[in-house]
Design a protein that fits this description.
This protein is α+β, with helices and mostly antiparallel strands. It folds into two domains: 95 residues, Arc Repressor Mutant, subunit A (Orthogonal Bundle), CATH 1.10.10; 60 residues, Dna Ligase, domain 1, CATH 3.30.1490. It is 42% helix and 14% strand. It has six helices and five strands. The strands form two sheets. The protein has a three-stranded mixed beta sheet, with no helix packed on it. The N terminus is likely disordered. The chain binds zinc ion (ZN). Zinc ion binds next to α6.
Length: 155
């Protein structure tokens, strides 16, 4: 379960943050964080690996990358989003609400536009579930449909 997390460093001042979460500031970890900070949408393992290679040269091997992402997710520094294509995508925890749109054709994942009413609506749902004895925790909304690109091709 991700621990509550409040502040992300403004620039690339990750080492103290990582230490606070009991993680080592390895070059692989720092590189992955750098890649995710610049990413506009959640990325798959492969996308992270490719972006890492573009920016820093040789990327960490698959196993190392999986471990880094697992540790960052466990520490609440990054979020894992499971797509309908059964692939996980990763994003920095602060890079949005976790609410996403996923295209049913190409499985592109985009952050949802900010909606000031959404947190209140989710809180209401949480309360309604609580009355049924259900304790809801993470609340990420996923809307599915056809993205602009796929919609154009279909037309
Ligand atoms: Zn699409």
């Amino acid at each position: 379960m991700p621990r509550p997390f409040t502040t992300l460093p403004a620039a690339d001042d990750w080492p103290p943050v990582l230490r606070r979460h009991g993680l080592r500031a390895t070059s692989a970890t720092l590189g992955v964080l750098g890649v995710m900070r610049r990413a506009e949408v959640p990325m798959t393992h492969e996308e992270i690996q490719r972006a890492y290679a573009r920016e820093f040269g040789a990327p960490p091997d698959k196993v190392t990358l999986y471990r880094v992402l697992e540790r960052l997710t466990g520490a609440g520094l990054c979020d894992t989003l499971a797509g309908a294509d059964r692939r996980n995508r990763f994003a920095l925890h602060a890079s949005g609400s976790g609410h996403v749109f996923e295209c049913s054709c190409c499985h592109k994942v985009l952050p949802l536009p900010d909606d000031p009413e959404l947190p209140a609506a989710l809180a209401r749902l949480g309360k309604a579930l609580k009355r049924q004895g259900i304790r809801a925790q993470a609340s990420a909304v996923t809307l599915r449909g056809t993205c602009a690109d796929c919609g154009r091709h279909a037309a």
